[in-house]
Amino acid sequence: MLLKKNIPIGYVFGKVKVELVIILLYSLAIAVIHEWFLEVPISIPLAVPAVLGTVISLLLGFRSNQAYDRWWEARQVWGAIVNDSRTLARQVLNFTGSQYEEDDVHIWRQRMIRRQIAWCYALGQSLRRLNPTIGLEKYLSRKEMEYLTRFNNVPMAMLDQHGKDLRRALEEGYINRYQQMEIDKTLTRLCDAMGKCERIKNTVFPSTYSLYIHFSLLLFIAMLPFGVIDYFGFLEVPLVVAISASFLLIEKMAIHLQDPFENKPTDTPMTAIAGTIEKDLKQLMHDQDLPEDKRQEKYYYIM
Amino acid sequence: MLLKKNIPIGYVFGKVKVELVIILLYSLAIAVIHEWFLEVPISIPLAVPAVLGTVISLLLGFRSNQAYDRWWEARQVWGAIVNDSRTLARQVLNFTGSQYEEDDVHIWRQRMIRRQIAWCYALGQSLRRLNPTIGLEKYLSRKEMEYLTRFNNVPMAMLDQHGKDLRRALEEGYINRYQQMEIDKTLTRLCDAMGKCERIKNTVFPSTYSLYIHFSLLLFIAMLPFGVIDYFGFLEVPLVVAISASFLLIEKMAIHLQDPFENKPTDTPMTAIAGTIEKDLKQLMHDQDLPEDKRQEKYYYIM
Amino acid sequence: MLLKKNIPIGYVFGKVKVELVIILLYSLAIAVIHEWFLEVPISIPLAVPAVLGTVISLLLGFRSNQAYDRWWEARQVWGAIVNDSRTLARQVLNFTGSQYEEDDVHIWRQRMIRRQIAWCYALGQSLRRLNPTIGLEKYLSRKEMEYLTRFNNVPMAMLDQHGKDLRRALEEGYINRYQQMEIDKTLTRLCDAMGKCERIKNTVFPSTYSLYIHFSLLLFIAMLPFGVIDYFGFLEVPLVVAISASFLLIEKMAIHLQDPFENKPTDTPMTAIAGTIEKDLKQLMHDQDLPEDKRQEKYYYIM
Amino acid sequence: MLLKKNIPIGYVFGKVKVELVIILLYSLAIAVIHEWFLEVPISIPLAVPAVLGTVISLLLGFRSNQAYDRWWEARQVWGAIVNDSRTLARQVLNFTGSQYEEDDVHIWRQRMIRRQIAWCYALGQSLRRLNPTIGLEKYLSRKEMEYLTRFNNVPMAMLDQHGKDLRRALEEGYINRYQQMEIDKTLTRLCDAMGKCERIKNTVFPSTYSLYIHFSLLLFIAMLPFGVIDYFGFLEVPLVVAISASFLLIEKMAIHLQDPFENKPTDTPMTAIAGTIEKDLKQLMHDQDLPEDKRQEKYYYIM
Amino acid sequence: MLLKKNIPIGYVFGKVKVELVIILLYSLAIAVIHEWFLEVPISIPLAVPAVLGTVISLLLGFRSNQAYDRWWEARQVWGAIVNDSRTLARQVLNFTGSQYEEDDVHIWRQRMIRRQIAWCYALGQSLRRLNPTIGLEKYLSRKEMEYLTRFNNVPMAMLDQHGKDLRRALEEGYINRYQQMEIDKTLTRLCDAMGKCERIKNTVFPSTYSLYIHFSLLLFIAMLPFGVIDYFGFLEVPLVVAISASFLLIEKMAIHLQDPFENKPTDTPMTAIAGTIEKDLKQLMHDQDLPEDKRQEKYYYIM
């Protein structure tokens, strides 16, 4: 699905550009004062920032772990959506008896599978707070499009439409009662996946933790030049900037990872995944109209 | 569901206000004595509090992890309640055959879905030790309200009512035997979610761990001024207060996170989640009477 | 279920009383020798015990995590028992058709639910290595009591009785074939919960790990006075005792948490949980004979 | 199931005997050279091995965690085997209608349950790379024994025999179609448990990790005497041996824990667990021929 | 399945060969300059690299954990594929009634099981970005081979063929409706396993984390010689190389573990596992044509 693409170095450091310039000026000022102007010693033992460094390392470790878990769970949920979309297509295509190869069943199958493709796009767009129905006219009938606009939660309404179509299929005799239950279980799993995405989207990481870590980090960086000025002199400046960059980048990384649906370049590649689902499901339907590779994903770096 | 709201700085530091004032006076007294009165050295090597600092960091890391896990599990359970409420509504609406569009089935569907909405509110209120039936008269009949007051555990009784209604639906022929089993599985998952909330609510974090960590922390803070007084002089006071604030805040944070149903501003936003469920389920029923945004949640900061 | 109760300070420190007295005498002896008798220096650099301290902190962290996981899993399993007991009652009450409101079905329901209550008490007692059948005569017939005494594993035999009663219900036509399967799934989950409790009970934590950690801790404590005697003099004694108490308590805590069914005051509150189940299930049966709060639990502190 | 037995101290230290003697001689040589022969200083600052000590602690923590997880998963899988064996017995005994109490059904039940007992022993023996069919003649017919010898994977073939017997039971009308599916699910879970054991058995821990940790540990031990010789003189020898023993033991412990099916004294007690299953299942069948306590397990210390 | 094989030492160090030569030259240059040419002191306190060392240790621990989890999850998924392949074979062989022992059913069974064997090989090959259909002509008909080449995702198409064959079996009366649903659940699990492999394959580890850790490591190594040159002189060179090798190897190890399907010697042994599945399934079919041990796996070291 995803290819490894290089991340431009500018992009990486761009996130902490402002902070690094300030730290550069700050540590330079200290070095100038220490070397040229001041007589009284201003250095402190390195052990003082080192104690803070240990605490901050542990807290950044904790934070990185939780952020990574959120990001990885988001990726797992979208992996499960791939699996269950394929399962739904397999069930819809193969549960309906081969004797019903006439038009009605064929239309029903097409409608179910196209709606499933649309559901994946709609879920991705609604998680990014975009209009979920944009671009779905390729997969849904005009009537269904109109019906869906009445709902706040469009993907949920589409699962309900799936359920209504299952009932129709049972009443028409396309599927039997056990098959209805089995496909309904697949819908339940899709409903769970949708809810898990919403949970990750809507639950912010405890922000007091973030605040505390950020303040501790600033305290640590402010003390660092005093701890190393005696040994390094002007070489202190690049050293402090380099160490600060490390800590700030790891903090920023955690901040970005923890919100995997925020419409940022480092997002979960939902449109690409939905494109893969579309390609797979259309091939199962023997539909030749495969989607070209999605262009709108190209600005999304893969993290 | 939830929006990021700013946490007032006063709220954050308010929790450790008293402790910080005491630490301020304590470290100030030591600085005054050291600088103005005393001749004999009272400083100790920084390595002594540093050893304690490492141990405490590890223990706070352990504690933060467990507290976060409890909080995140609480959030996951409520996410599962959202999913299973939607699944229940989808099953109730779509299992009942479309030929039964007459009034009886319609009333049955309405009763099931309204009770499910009420169940979410009731569970949230009973986890906060409030009267679980307050405000449920909008969703339940007077007779059912009266019946429920006989029970200690109101949400459990409501699931039992769901079960009774399922039996009635089977006997009336609204649903078939497989569908009864499938909806019953959804009830089982809701019952599990309820029990998980009760487990988190009722199991206190091993309090001897908390005690030990708190005492170690006090010992560490008491030794800190002696470790840095030689290098910092009066600057020791803000340094000690800042480091103490970090450690105390991280401890307080863990204490709040570990009890996510305690009716505090940093609570799991159960009423807001139940409101979302109400909106979704009513739209599925084509009920126009959507709830306005819940006002009582506005004092709950999102953590 | 559980209320936060204060843990008497004597109870907490009582567990490490003997060790602390020995450490007190040991560090006092070293201080006396150092201050009054000896000329040659006996202090060692603090870095030596500090290295050991880091290793021990990491190992205690590992141990605390595993012990906490065992304890929390035990609590989760009993939470699942609560859920599945309620589910069993809901299924037993609501699967049996309302047209069978005559006595036979009523007796069958009562027997199933009362046996489930008894099963919870029996499991708790057998995990504590008490006679599992004590006090069950309130819930079971005399004949069933006699039958059960033939088994080594009484709770397993009771699940088998549940299974036999399900067969009877199917043969009598109280429940249909799907319902038998669905209730059997609930029995399977109860069987799993029972087996998980037995696994936690019967699998000791790798004892060589415990041994190693304990010996390292003693080595660390033995070296500690020599590391701090130079800076603290007689103040070394309370410092060493306080730090040793911290480490010993955290070790003891892990030892207690890791065996959650050992009939100790810090046990998993199985009798209280079984009492909650009894109350809930009896209310579902409209049985007025609710249990009074269990008195025998009062000596069990909640950890 | 398992009782806590003391681990002879000789057994514990026997594993690192050779290493400790070498370290003893090595550190003794350094002490002799330093004290009696050499004039030039050979000590190095303790901070150098201390840095390595921190890295090694973290890596040993990582390794202990993964090894413990493998060991605990092995134990969980065998706990699940206990649960599913009991579930299989309950289903086999109680699904077959009570009206079929004639001989055929009885023989069928006996065959299923005895084969399940045999399966547990066979799985344990094949995981220990012993002949899996040894001792199974007590539970299986001669014909079935012969049939099984044709298979590389005997436990898999026994599950297939279970499946064939289920088909026979359906064709004879002992069980209905739903019951066949439900028992088949139990077989699926047993098949999963078997595969999980094979996975743990056949996947070696990434050996380059082990190599790296071992080499780092040797480097650390080699540098340790130089770091402490200045402060301790000849007392350095027991100190170095004690610290080395701690690190080596924790490494050895992880190596043993990570392979829980290697026919070593610290093995997962599979034969004892199979004995428990045999006793439980025979009591459910009202079979008086209970197994005596397994003697061959007595050399297996419980870790 | 897998045997422990020795990893040639050259292979282990070969991965970091270039880096180590550069570090050797670098540290040698510093030693030469310090010992022979320079008068001014160039050493820095060891505490400066030590602070970085702690941070890097924690980050490498985090990275090793996540990489190990990916690798272990990959192994678990392939373990589940083993289990579900056996389950599918057991169901296909034993659900079809024994009265249908005529040719048609036999051919259907053979086709299903041979396709399942082929599916395992195809999945392994497509995860390694090889042509998935190579070598499958032994298991599949020519017609099916041709059909499969039309699909981008061959294993998905094979599961769809499984589904079509199930429908045919239902229509022919080989299996009943419940059995179709039960085998379909096994297909769903296989579909999930396939999707999980694709997720691990296609999701790169957040590359900014990797970059950050790598840069911090280089900074640490660059500072290390200056930290120890005063104590060791020329002995500094092997020490720096040894410590650098440790850190670089642990980083490389994580990089290899995190991508378990990259066609490298340290890969997940997918072909060997598929060979095991082939052997097991053919024995269940009483097919004598067992595969010889796969030769192409011999260059794959087991990690």
UniProtKB/TrEMBL annotation, chains A, B, C, D, E:
TM helices/strands, residue ranges: 20-38, 44-62, 209-226, 232-250
Gene Ontology molecular-function annotations: chloride channel activity
Major subcellular location class: membrane
Keywords noted in UniProt: Cell membrane, Ion transport, Membrane, Transmembrane, Transmembrane helix, Transport
Record's GO cellular component terms: plasma membrane
Compartment(s) where it occurs, according to its Swiss-Prot or TrEMBL record: Cell membrane
Domain of life: Bacteria
Membrane topology field: Multi-pass membrane protein
Keyword Cell membrane: yes
Keyword Membrane: yes
Similarity remark: Belongs to the anion channel-forming bestrophin (TC 1.A.46) family.
Protein name: Bestrophin
Organism whose genome encodes this protein: Niastella populi
